[in-house]
From TrEMBL:
Belongs to the UPF0301 (AlgH) family. NCBIfam families: PRK00228.1-4. This is UPF0301 protein DEM25_009060. SUPFAM superfamilies: VC0467-like. GO terms for cellular component: cytosol.
Length: 202
């Protein structure tokens, strides 16, 4: 969690912090093809965010079952899976580490507020709370995150790799991943004919 705080998450420093990144079609050969990313940190030192629409090959109950406390706890798998929907692939960095974006009705000492509607907690305590039925009303579980070095994201946006849009908590917490990218493209009033084929690096 200290690493996250050092990244300035929730500081509001960067112009793109707290916004969505929507991948341009020119990124089809990239791991970020058709991705919607919630950018939770942006500063002169770089950026960090979570891909919202790439499901992992794992349910939340299975993820919890791999933790030390999950191995010794009887899990109500249906209830747990309903709590946060499918686990997402948050990005290619620290892909074996879990992060939870969630609503403000849950907070512990390590919780970082990101916006009026979204918080971030990355300790196992929130998973224990979900198992106990005391977790947040809305949650999105991600394995790994997307990261950019100093100036990298700004260059990718200049290279037409990403569109930016206001973040919507409904998109962040929605369980249906397949609809998120088409919904964002439609919401922005953009059709395939409007896209420039070449994009930037990612």
């Amino acid at each position: 969690m200290e690493t996250l705080r050092k990244r300035g998450i929730g500081s509001g420093n960067g112009q793109f912090e707290g916004r969505f990144l929507v991948a341009m079609p020119g990124m089809n050969a990239s791991i970020f093809a058709e991705s919607v990313v919630y950018l939770c940190a942006h500063s002169d030192e770089g950026a960090m965010g979570f891909v919202l629409n790439k499901p992992a090959d794992m349910t939340l109950a299975e993820l919890i079952g791999h933790t030390e406390f999950g191995k010794t706890t009887v899990l109500d798998k249906a209830q747990i899976n309903d709590a946060a929907g499918p686990v997402r692939i948050g990005g290619p960095v620290d892909e074996h580490r879990g992060f939870v974006l969630h609503s403000h009705d849950y907070a512990i000492d390590t919780t970082i507020p990101l916006s009026d509607a979204i918080c971030l907690t990355s300790t196992v305590d929130i998973l224990k709370s979900i198992v106990a039925g005391a977790g947040p009303a809305q949650a999105a579980i991600a394995l790994g995150y997307a990261g950019w070095g100093a100036g990298q994201l700004e260059q990718e946006i200049r290279d037409n790799a990403w569109l930016t849009a206001d973040a919507d908590p409904d998109i962040v917490f929605a369980h249906d991943h397949d609809d998120k990218y088409p919904a964002m493209i439609s919401r922005m009033g953009i059709g395939a004919a409007n896209f420039i084929p070449e994009g930037g690096r990612a």
